[in-house]
Amino acid sequence: MIDDAAEKPFPRFPEFPASEENSLQRQSPSARVGDIPVEIQVVIGRTKVSVAQLTAAKKGSWFRLDKRFGEPVELQVNGQTIGYGEIVSDDRDNFVGIRMTSVENRL
């Protein structure tokens, strides 16, 4: 069987000329990834609890975090800290947002 596979010619694929539809070839790597969506996570604080405390949690339970009100929150992409910000609200639509206060790491 190996001899049969060796006798078959390798298939030829057509070459596609660079065109406006195929402009990825002419773009820099940073331009190619610039439109890829990423998810930002906002970390307002951390704490450690035992498994017993976690399994005993019910409606109304609360956990004390390592942050105080007004302290910057951490912004992460793929688990990497990219900066810090403050929590803000949009009074018109009642949404929560983050105003960047510092940038730690560019992607």
UniProtKB/TrEMBL annotation:
GO terms for biological process: bacterial-type flagellum-dependent cell motility; chemotaxis. Its main location: membrane. One of its GO terms (cellular component) is bacterial-type flagellum basal body. Residues 32-103 form the Flagellar motor switch protein FliN-like C-terminal domain. It comes from the Bacteria. This is Flagellar motor switch protein FliN. Belongs to the FliN/MopA/SpaO family. Residues 1-10 have a biased composition (Basic and acidic residues). Transmembrane segments: none annotated. One of its GO terms (molecular function) is cytoskeletal motor activity. Keywords: Cell membrane, Chemotaxis, Flagellar rotation, Membrane. Residues 1-30 are annotated as: Disordered. It is a peripheral membrane protein. It comes from Aliirhizobium smilacinae. Residues 20-30 have a biased composition (Polar residues).
